[in-house]
Automatic annotation (TrEMBL):
Originating gene: Tbc1d32
Full protein name: Protein broad-minded
Protein biosynthesis in keyword set: no
UniProt-listed PANTHER family: PROTEIN BROAD-MINDED, UPF0183 PROTEIN
Biological source species: Dipodomys ordii
Lineage: Eukaryota, Metazoa, Chordata, Craniata, Vertebrata
Main location: other
Length: 1299
């Protein structure tokens, strides 16, 4: 054993060398000796080969031989005494044994022995190193003359010498190196001294007493004419920047910057004249560029670590840099020759001023840079601005040589080694442009303006600078078409300016201050003005320049402030002609491009790109409600649709390429271009669907099916709409699904099929790509998180127009057997498989029966909040009877005479749905049972039932007696509306008194008083032709004439529901059901006289109004069940404009609407009222509007549902009466104001549910507690003052062809 140990000790030097060789890179990269020691101490954690090193194996064997037996004895002792609590302070046996071992005598003896052995080994290695070093130096002297002048020659010693050198480098040797670096010493001596300095550890060099002297010597040596020696100095600088601590690199950086500053100020540099250009093969120029590049590389790296050091270090670096860049020669004695200043060289090595971008990124350094620029070095900004001004003047002058020079630089793919004066000027211009662009992003940077320039009387303001930048886009020369397009585009003036302006657009505060003003926008639009006038846009304005302009305009239009500026100018209420604002000019130009009414670019290959760029600007505008209103006169939807149809025909005519034909490539490229343009046009058309009125325009084009198919294709690729859209296609789908034609298009495109397939995969199948390591966890939530997205998508989809189109007149499959692999493909299948589980076959076909059925019941609960949908499903599938039967089967017999319901997730959910669909009422009129169990002996205190009627606990006693009032206030209320001789005076007086009563005593406006009030007011309005919107229709049918006519099953169920609600409120009596049925039959016959039937595949256009007449039912209850008074009122009311928006069946396929509006199947309430609601919502409640978009849900859909059913189930009866009375008395625009008031009331709830990602469910399921029309009356009056002219014009125009 002893012989083996001695043999190992003789091998220890070799073992250590192996170890150091393996960790050579880690040790040499360490900035100091302390870091190197830390690396070795933690080597086991960082080196996967640690236990394979021979030295580690030796240590392990030595420990085993010395301490092995003792460790085994301690282990046995610990285990035997464990139950007696030996050393109870230690958690494990290992910890206990380790402590005992380290405290033992054997361990201390082993450590002492190892230390002695290692000291001997290390001493021998150091001695051998010194011998090797002497021999190495001798060899270096022999080959010194053969060394090349490579800048990055690697002269580092091996790992052993590098590691041990730190022990032997001393202050005396450093002093010797300083003496040998003296310029008076022989060249060989100076070379050796510099070589030794480069090999010295940076930490030792830093800690020497002569560091300041060394810096001075190095600075002097930088001017050495010997290129080899100069490169050696730069190598030392580079090593210092890489390996040294920050305060050392700071001093080296400052010394290099000061050297360059003195160099540029010295007379010897005067030979570099701008007009002579710059030859970088010149040795002097080459060395100078290397020094500048080294400085610049450090500039770009230093921001990553200077925050860890005192401010003083950073300030010194910044100031030395700005001082160098601000160097200017006194050229008073020179007339036409300009000397190259340092900024030109920095522009050469860092054309896009990346160093300045990094310095301005962090607030820590940005404040220092801006403070120094403002106080001492503002000339740097002034010269940059001057350079941009000069370049624009050169472009404006259109000098041939300038143009050629700049084009040469743009397109010179293989750069020569010579830069002409023109190219240097251009490079400096690009550098200045990037520097100024970065400066303008920050508030303090913008405060440096205005700037006083030479040869200019007025100071140059911020707006002047932005105008200058904008003019550069279309005044600067284009690069040669023979050059690489990508390379030329990268540095072309227009591209560079566009890049700067894009960054400014993305910063809201900066964009508002810099870009969003009429002067800058007018400058952007100037070439468009000129083109429309038939003159050339600008001396060098090209298609590329127009594309850049369109890109900036699109970014401006995507921001709210920019959009307002384009739509209305700086003063919204200005008397300036509307057609002169930016939006009008852009729309006119885009229409001319689409109609090919501009000949200047005809035949150009870039013309489709120009068209697409400007249509994308329009898309940003007409994608908003207010923008669409402004652009309506231009009928852009027609022009885009026409261009799409033309392009679609072209794509069909492209011949199929034949293999081997020479035309394959050209045909293929042509077809790709045409298909790309076709997709672009479809995308433009699709974006009309972002607003309700835009969706009407889209359906008029006849391209909705193709657009929705395009949207589905993009959706499957997970692509966003465009770069300005942030929340995908959610809102678009929600808008499209609010119409029958849109729902049909979604079905035909495969969108619904894909949505249902994804739902089924998550609900029933689970993810295929998840490895089955453990069983799937039971979901805690009723709807699992994996299915939440699909659930919300279905909620968005299933508006009543969509449900009627997709489900109407269709039976359930109700198959005898369902395969486990059978996946639903449509909404009928979802109802059949998840909601109406009325057979064992359906239950057995589900892997997760309870979870899937709860999903279906939750979906049913949300969908049935739309009363028309509820009536349709009840009429077609009798859902309430099926749910009651399921509850019946959930009964458990506890004794012969007593049965109890089994309380589980399904029975609780069914109970909630049954109460919801059977009971009508506002927030204070009905009580819905919760879906959650409670702690205690009775987890579900709410009674369940399996047959009607409902238990009385769900009926609100307070609400039941709320409307039991005497008519004692009738006379008092009617006295407020004294008639005068003139009808118009009476109307205005009535409206004024009504407002007064709504604010002071709103509860008086109810009961029979309200009925009489409405009768008198509508009677006088209908007798005033100037107020009437529709002509009077003669109607002579009697009850006997209509008695035998049949009502739809939906209407029949709606009658029962209305009478049940009326009786609950004590408004209707027995027999009201027959009277209401007769009333609805009279209404249908009366309205049919004014209808114009159309041939359409849409179900909603085939026959009478597809839903229940909730307005007529509401009036029947207001009139206390008097059908004659109600029908007489409706006849008179049908002449008023308000009837078009309150009484939805009034304009169903009405001949008073344009034919294309009838064929679209879209009601004016949707394309007019809800469109206005979205427009006002964005202006008045921007947070709520953003919340809708973030949730992927359109406000128009929920508003359409509220309005269609007259707020039944959402407001108490008193508030419904006030809503109807307010709209009749004050105008249909109050329908819009009421919805805005509701959103204002719900603002906090909406924001909260946006965060919990269930906004759609909240708005559809929850009533509107606490909302009273009278509380928001003053707010609605303010809205009326601000918006009535726009809304009334829009509402009156529903009969006009150009909606």
């Amino acid at each position: 054993m002893a012989q083996s140990s001695n043999e190992d000790e003789r091998q220890l030097p070799a073992m250590l060398r192996q170890l150091f060789q393996s960790v050579k890179e880690k040790i040499t990269a360490a900035p100091s000796l302390e870091c190197a020691e830390e690396i070795l101490l933690h080597l086991e954690k960082t080196d996967e080969n640690f236990h394979n090193y021979e030295f580690v194996k030796y240590l392990r064997q030595h420990i085993c031989n010395t301490l092995g037996s003792m460790i085994e004895e301690e282990m046995e002792s610990c285990i035997s005494d464990h139950n007696q609590g030996v050393e109870s302070g230690y958690d494990t046996v290992v910890q206990y044994v380790t402590k005992r071992t380290q405290e033992s005598k054997e361990y201390k003896e082993m450590m002492y022995s190892l230390k002695n052995i290692m000291m001997v080994v290390v001493e021998s290695m150091i001695n051998k190193f010194e011998e090797d070093e002497i021999r190495s130096q001798e060899r270096q002297r022999k080959v010194q003359k053969e060394k090349n002048n490579s800048y990055c020659t690697d002269n580092c010693s091996d790992s052993d010498s590098s590691f041990n050198q730190s022990y032997k480098f001393c202050q005396g040797k450093l002093q010797l190196i300083l003496d040998e670096l003296d310029p008076g010493q022989p060249k060989e001596v100076r070379y050796e001294a510099l070589q030794a300095l480069c090999s010295a550890p940076p930490s030792d060099v830093l800690n020497c007493e002569n560091w300041t002297t060394l810096c001075e010597k190095l600075t002097v040596s930088l001017s050495d004419p010997d290129p080899v020696f100069s490169d050696r100095i730069l190598k030392f600088y580079a090593q210092t920047f890489t390996l040294s601590p920050f305060h050392m690199t700071k001093e080296i950086y400052i010394s290099l910057a000061k050297y360059l500053e003195l160099h540029f100020l010295s007379r010897e540099h005067h030979v570099l004249i701008l007009s002579a250009g710059l030859d970088i093969t010149n040795p002097n120029v080459n060395r100078l560029l290397k020094k500048v590049r080294l400085l610049n590389e450090y500039q770009k790296e230093v921001p990553s670590f200077w925050i860890r050091h005192p401010d003083k270090y950073m300030e010194e670096i910044v100031e030395s840099t700005l001082s160098l860049l601000s160097v200017k020669h006194d050229q008073s004695h020179l007339v036409s020759q300009k000397i190259l200043d340092p900024i030109y060289f920095f522009a050469l090595v860092d054309t896009k001023a990346v160093w300045f971008k990094k310095w301005m990124h962090a607030y820590y350094s940005r404040t220092t840079v801006l403070r120094l620029l403002e106080k001492k070095y503002k000339s740097l900004i002034t010269t940059a601005v001057q350079q941009c001004v000069k370049y624009l003047e050169l472009c404006d002058a259109m000098k041939t040589d300038v143009t050629v020079g700049h084009s040469k630089y743009c397109g010179n793919k293989q750069k020569t080694f010579y830069y002409s004066g023109q190219e240097l000027q251009y490079i400096y211009f690009i550098h200045s442009l990037c520097l100024l662009g970065r400066l303008l992003i920050y508030t303090q940077g913008r405060k440096l303006f205005p700037i006083k320039l030479k040869n200019r009387k007025d100071s140059l303001s911020l707006t002047d600078l932005l105008v200058l930048f904008t003019q550069l886009i279309y005044y600067s020369p284009s690069c040669s078409k023979m050059t690489s397009a990508a390379h030329s585009e990268r540095y072309s003036p227009a591209s560079m300016v566009t890049e700067v302006l894009q960054i400014l657009c993305d910063q809201k505060e900066c964009a508002v201050e810099c870009l969003y003003n009429t002067t800058v926008i007018d400058t952007l639009l100037q070439p468009i003005h000129n083109l429309m006038k038939g003159i050339e846009a600008a001396p060098n304005c090209s298609e590329a320049a127009l594309i850049h302009i369109a890109d900036i305009l699109a970014r401006v239009a995507s921001a709210e402030e920019g959009l307002i500026l384009l739509l209305y100018g700086e003063n919204v209420h200005s008397s300036k002609e509307e057609s002169s604002t930016g939006a009008h000019i852009i729309a006119q130009f885009s229409k001319k491009l689409l109609d090919e009414d501009i000949s200047i670019f005809s035949g150009s290959e870039m013309l489709p790109v120009v068209k697409g760029a400007f249509i994308s600007v329009c898309r940003q505008i007409y994608g908003t409600c207010e923008g669409l209103q402004v652009l309506l006169p231009y009928s852009l939807h027609e022009s885009i649709a026409k261009a799409w149809k033309k392009t679609s025909l072209l794509s069909e005519r492209i011949p199929t390429p034949v293999e081997g034909s020479d035309s394959i490539c050209s045909v293929s490229q042509e077809s790709q271009n045409i298909m790309a343009w076709e997709d672009n046009l479809l995308d433009d058309l699709l974006n009309f669907a972002a607003t309700p009125k835009g969706l009407l325009l889209l359906q008029r084009t006849g391209a909705i099916n193709e657009c929705v198919t395009f949207m589905f294709n993009q959706y499957t690729k997970k692509l966003q709409i465009n770069r300005q859209k942030k929340f995908g296609y959610g809102v678009l789908v929600s808008q499209v699904a609010s119409t029958a034609a849109g729902a049909a298009a979604l079905q035909n495109s495969g969108f619904i099929n894909a949505l249902i397939a994804e739902l089924w995969s998550n609900l029933e199948c689970g993810r295929d790509d998840v490895r089955v390591i453990h069983p799937r966890s039971i979901p805690v939530d009723p709807i699992d998180r994996s299915c939440q997205k699909s659930f919300l998508a279905l909620v968005n989809l299933l508006s009543y127009p969509a449900v009627y189109e997709l489900v109407g007149h269709q039976d359930l499959p109700n198959k005898a057997e369902y395969s486990l692999r059978e996946v639903p493909t449509c909404i009928i299948d979802i109802i059949d498989r998840l909601i109406i589980l009325n057979s064992e076959a359906k239950i057995r076909s589900l892997f997760n029966y309870e979870q899937s059925h709860i999903f279906g019941l939750r979906l049913l609960s949300v969908v049935c909040c739309d009363l028309d949908t509820l009536l349709l499903l009840e009429a077609q599938y009798q859902i309430s009877q099926i749910l009651l039967h399921a509850q019946e089967e959930n009964l458990l017999e506890t004794s012969e005479s007593h049965r109890e319901f089994i309380i589980d997730g399904l029975s609780v959910e069914r109970n909630h749905v049954l109460v919801r669909i059977n009971l009508i009422g506002g927030p204070q009129e009905r009580i819905l049972p919760p879906r959650m169990l409670v702690k205690g002996d009775d987890p579900y205190p709410w009674p369940m039932f399996s047959s009607y009627p409902l238990p009385s606990c769900y009926l609100s006693e307070v609400a039941r007696n709320a409307d039991i009032k005497k008519d004692s206030d009738l006379g008092k209320l009617l006295l407020c509306f004294k008639m005068s001789e003139k009808q118009t005076d009476w109307i205005e007086n009535s409206q004024r008194q009504f407002c007064k009563m709504m604010k002071a005593k709103p509860d008086i406006i109810s009961g029979s008083a309200l009925a009489e009030l409405l009768e008198k007011f509508v009677l006088h309005l209908s007798e005033n032709p100037s107020v009437c919107c529709f002509p009077s229709m003669e109607y002579t049918a009697t009850d006997a004439n209509v008695k035998n006519e049949s009502l739809s099953s939906v209407q029949q169920l709606g009658i029962k529901m209305t009478v049940r609600y009326g009786k609950f409120l004590n408004l209707l009596k027995d027999g009201a059901e027959n009277d209401l049925a007769l009333l609805l039959k009279h209404c249908e016959r009366f309205l049919k006289q004014q209808q114009s039937p159309v041939k359409s595949s849409l179900l909603c256009l085939q026959g009478n109004y597809p839903g229940h007449d909730w307005f007529a039912s509401s009036l029947f209850m207001i009139m206390l069940g008097d059908k004659e008074k109600t029908f007489q009122f409706l006849q008179q009311f049908s002449r008023l404009l308000t009837s078009a928006f309150l009484w939805l069946p009034r304009l169903h396929i009405s001949r008073y609407l344009p034919v294309d509006t009838i064929e679209s199947g879209i009601h004016p309430v949707y394309f007019c009222s809800t469109h206005s609601i979205e427009m006002l919502l964005k202006a008045e409640l921007p947070l709520v509007f953003s919340a809708f978009h973030m949730s992927g849900f359109a406000p128009s859909q929920i508003c359409l549902q509220w309005i269609s059913q007259c707020f039944w189930n959402y407001l108490d009866w008193m508030e419904i009466c006030h809503y109807i009375a307010t709209c009749i008395f004050l105008g249909p625009d109050y329908q819009v104001y009421t919805c805005i008031a509701i959103f204002k009331h719900l603002q906090q709830d909406i924001l909260q549910h946006t965060q919990t990602q269930d906004l759609q469910v909240f708005l559809k399921e929850e009533a509107l507690p606490g909302f009273r029309v009278s509380d928001y009356f003053e707010y609605m009056e303010i809205l009326e003052q601000n918006y009535r002219p726009v809304l009334w014009r829009d509402m009156r125009n529903i009969r006009v062809q150009n909606t």
